[in-house]
Task: structure prediction
Amino acid sequence: MIPLKLSAGQPKYMFPCAFRFTLQIFKLYCLIVVCCIYAFAAISVNRSDASVGSKFYHVNHYLMSYIRHISRKLFLDVTGVFVVKLRTMTSITPNANIYPGSSMSSGAGVAGSVAGAAPTFSPLYQQIKALITQGLQSGEWKPGELIPSEMELASRFKVSQGTVRKAIDELSAENLVVRRQGKGTFVATHHEARAQFRFLRLAPDEGVPHYPENQIIEVRRLRAPAEVARLLEIKSGDSVVFIRRVQSFSGVPTILDDLWLPGSIFKGLTAERLNEYKGPMYGLFETEFGTHMIRASEQIRAVCADDVAAHLLHVNMGTPLLNVERVSFTYGDKPVELRRGLYLTTSHHYRNELS
Result:
């Protein structure tokens, strides 16, 4: 048996909790029976005999006080909340904190250990959101496909329809799904017109934004430099696909992009395949390599055009350019693209919306 510190008093050796609990219940039962007997006897006594009634009153008052004390010890915590108190034995070796005289009281020690071990719980709709996201990540519902209705998902996950609606609202706000009035909710895809400008923030100073023309300069496989490997969270020297391209608006070269992609994911990606594909590059990644870009992190600074950038963008060396370094992430917050773009802002500007 292990010495445990009770809420008051010295350490005591504890019997198995079930036995002690049964014993206390039996004591309480006996006290109640005795109290009932005394109460019945008091009623039977001639009420005119005040001394006898007073004796019975004092006896009953004492018994009821003791019953209340036992009940509080068994069933009530220090705040008066009804609980069933069970003490379980532990294999942890007793230390100084469980004995009187310790620098930390037993109450504080127990509270601290409970607080330290308390698990964290997420709201139910967040759990449903995570389950739906797992379905998207596993390919159960592919980009552009209709996902089950809120009622069907509620039945599947055994939750209310309101909980599912709140989860889908967050997924929609994060551009993982798209609601269409009267049609349902669809998995977001980079092939949609509105999605093409989510990751393209360069807009014309005048006119309507439109997608640029692509010119692939080179595509090759190489060993990941240390900085690239760090940002892509792969090992230095692992295979990566390097892409250099120029994007033009109305025939004017405006963006010079250098991209690094993990070679293990983008096997078979060649310059020929990129040139053949007429849609957005992220659409190709989604369709042929199963990689859907969820979000991106960018760093922006002003630089001067070097000889390579000046030649490809048809500007003079030293021309001011906007340098945008982006890391794009897929499901599970996994980085799958490093992009360094040089933007010519003679007739364009970088647009961002904050909310």
In short: Residues 173 and 355 are 12 Å apart (CA to CA).
